[in-house]
Structures are given as C-alpha cells and as structure tokens.
C-alpha cells in the first residue's frame, strides 16, 4: 500500500510512524509540503552560514506531557530515550504555570528536530517545496492523484491531508473539493474550525556577544504589562544551553495577531522588534540577523465539532483529513491521540 501525506508537520509525522508500525515494510509513505523545511508549526529557523549554530524555535516552544496519560507517555519516553527531548529547566523562568501532573520538555537541537526524527523513524520519503493544489480520483485505476498547479506529481492508494483546515477549503481543488461540497454537514463543520494568529520575531546574535544581560530564560509577559508581546525566550538557554551564540524569540499576543492578520510581516516585524528593545532596554542591539514570521494559523482555537481525530471523505481509495484541527486540543499530546484514531480507522478499512 502506498500512502501520500500532505503536510510535513508533526501530525503527518506521527501518522507516518504509526502506519509504519502497523503495516511494516509493506507500506510506502510519501510526504509533500509546500515549505522548504520539515516541521510545520514546529519550526526551527537558523541564522546565516556564517553563524550556523544560532537558531530559534519560531513556532512551538516546548512539549508538555501529562504524567497520568499512559498512551502519550510512551511516545515521550521514546523521544527521551532517543535523546531528542529533555526536561525543561524551570529555574529563571517567569509566568510558566505549574501543574503537578505535567512535565515540560525542550528539544536541544531545535523543536523541528522532533518532527524530523519521527519522520526518520517512519522511513518516509520527503518532498519539500512541492505545493499540492489538487487531489483527484484516477480515471484509470482505484487510486488518488496529487498535483501542483503545473503537473501531476504522484498517485497512491490513500491520501491523508494534515494542513490547516482553511487551507484545505481555499487551496485544494479537484475531487477533494467536490467531496467536501457534496457533504454539506462536513463542510459546515469544517467552516467552524478557527485558529489564532501570532507574529514571531527571532533575533540572532553573533558569537562575539557573550551575554544578553537577561536574567531569565523564559518570560510569559502579562497582558497588562505589554499589549504587543506575550512570550519571550532566550532560545538557546531555553534549550538548556547557556553558551553563545545567543538568540531571542518573541511571540505576540493573540489579540495583536488578530488585529494585524492581513498586514505585511516585515512591516509588523520591524515594529515588534522595536517593542522588544523598548521592553528590554538592556538587550544588545548588535544582532547579526532577524527572522520575521506570521503564523496565520498558529493554534486551533475551535476544533472540528466531533473531535474524532480525523474526517473520512472517501473509503476506497482512502481520502482522509487529519491533524490537530480534529483533535481535542491544539498540542503535541492531542496530535498523538488524533493520529492513533486516524491510523486505527485506516487499519479497520484495510482489514
């Protein structure tokens, strides 16, 4: 069986891994993503080739495990055993909520390495910078065809789409759009899925800067103290590395993101950068470069009503929508649980 997954984020990675475990070497997994790197909303950005060890996690900052959740705990333990994640050191942090049943983990090599590692374990073929815009039924066999605007790229027995729901509704054409249009109930429920928007700004420092003059590694900013900034981190220190080169990541508030959702990320990014220096006047201004990113679809604020982990559009050939849009929450644990449900359905249909 050959399965194509649209989206190179953590949901596709987890589904790929579970499919590999379920079907072994008899399944071929092929991933397409319009981006140039693996990670989706768990992305790590790097400074220039002159400063290759300086990076920031522009999306998710750390992963949270629930001790009492035996299902997801096994996934966390595997990542720990593989030296992909390690506990977050909460000394010198401000505003992190304490919960006796929760443990937070950072990824020393960057949060995107978590996604990359899971894909490697799944032995998935990665195809980046490939923007799939059309999914069609084949007229010649019982397969699905995936295409860009220019040409058909591949065909498979099953296609699983994990990109944000608004992109599914606005960008994907062909048979998938026709199936959604014909299923009025599903279409109405898909339209209910909502996301928050955030801007992220990363500051990269050259190795010559040996201190940022910041006493904390993570700072959740109270909304009464700043209307722009909500999260700040000395990124390498967050990942338990206190040596240069240093980097700093800032995320805006949801309210600010919603207000400027249609604005240019460079213009807004420059404004945010200045707000960072105003909020942290002791911060050195001798940066080597800056990363601006607009997360138009940052976190799911309203999930697909059924929260079943997936939506099945067609059984044979299998066409499925999956990911955190169909999960109980928008976090790593919920992505694991949603992936389990999606693969359970695929196994049921293939038996």
Molecular structure report:
Residues 105-346 form the Amine oxidase domain. Residues 169-196 form a coiled coil. The protein is of the alpha/beta class. Helices cover 30% and strands 27% of the residues. It folds into two domains: 2-36 and 128-192 and 304-350, FAD/NAD(P)-binding domain, CATH 3.50.50; 195-300, Alpha-Beta Complex (Polyamine Oxidase, Chain A, domain 2). The chain contains ten helices and 23 strands. The strands form six sheets. It has a six-stranded mixed beta sheet with strand order 9-2-1-13-23-22, sandwiched between helices. It has a six-stranded mixed beta sheet with strand order 7-17-18-19-16-20. α1 (10-23) runs parallel beside α10 (332-350). The radius of gyration is 21 Å and the shape is globular. The two termini are 12 Å apart. The model has no long low-confidence stretch (mean pLDDT 96).
Strand-helix topology:
Layout: E1 2-6, H1 10-23, E2 28-32, E3 44-46, E4 55-57, E5 63-66, H2 70-81, E6 86-87, E7 93-94, E8 102-106, H3 112-122, E9 125-127, E10 134-137, E11 144-147, E12 152-156, E13 158-161, H4 165-171, E14 173-174, H5 175-182, H6 184-191, E15 194-195, E16 198-204, E17 218-220, E18 229-234, H7 235-238, E19 247-252, H8 254-259, H9 265-279, E20 289-295, E21 300-302, E22 310-314, E23 318-322, H10 332-350
Parallel strand pairs: 1-2, 1-13, 2-9, 7-17, 10-14, 13-23
Antiparallel strand pairs: 3-4, 5-8, 6-8, 10-11, 11-12, 15-21, 16-19, 16-20, 17-18, 18-19, 22-23
Helix pairs in contact: 1-3, 1-10
């Amino acid at each position: 069986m050959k399965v194509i997954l649209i989206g190179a984020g953590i949901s596709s990675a987890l589904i790929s891994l579970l499919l590999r475990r379920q079907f072994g070497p008899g399944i071929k997994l092929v991933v397409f993503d319009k981006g140039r790197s693996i990670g989706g909303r768990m992305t790590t950005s790097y400074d220039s080739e002159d400063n290759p060890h300086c990076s920031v996690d522009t999306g998710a900052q750390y992963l949270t495990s629930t001790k009492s959740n035996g299902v997801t705990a096994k996934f966390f333990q595997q990542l720990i055993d593989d030296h992909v994640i390690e506990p977050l050191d909460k000394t010198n942090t401000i505003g992190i909520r304490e919960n006796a049943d929760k443990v937070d983990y950072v990824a020393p090599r960057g949060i995107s390495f978590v996604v990359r590692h899971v894909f490697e374990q799944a032995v998935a073929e990665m195809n980046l910078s490939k923007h799939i815009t059309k999914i069609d039924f084949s007229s010649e066999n019982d397969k699905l065809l995936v295409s860009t605007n220019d040409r058909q790229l591949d065909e498979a027995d099953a296609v699983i789409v994990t990109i944000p729901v608004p992109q599914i509704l606005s960008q994907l054409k062909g048979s998938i759009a026709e199936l959604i249009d014909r299923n009025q109930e599903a279409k109405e429920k898909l339209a209910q899925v909502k996301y928050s928007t955030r801007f992220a700004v990363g500051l990269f420092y050259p190795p010559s800067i040996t201190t940022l003059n910041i006493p904390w590694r993570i700072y959740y900013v109270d909304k009464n103290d700043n209307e722009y900034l909500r999260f700040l981190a000395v990124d390498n220190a967050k990942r338990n590395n206190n040596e240069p080169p240093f980097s700093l990541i800032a995320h805006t508030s949801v309210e600010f993101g919603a207000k400027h959702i249609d604005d240019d990320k460079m213009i807004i990014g420059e404004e945010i950068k200045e707000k960072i220096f105003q909020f942290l006047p002791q911060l050195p201004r001798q940066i080597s470069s800056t990363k601006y990113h607009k997360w138009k679809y940052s976190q799911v604020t309203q999930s697909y009503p059924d929260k079943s982990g997936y939506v099945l559009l067609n059984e044979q050939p299998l066409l499925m929508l999956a990911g955190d849009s169909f999960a109980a929450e928008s976090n790593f644990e919920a992505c694991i649980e949603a992936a389990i449900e999606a693969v359970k359905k695929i196994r049921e249909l293939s038996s």
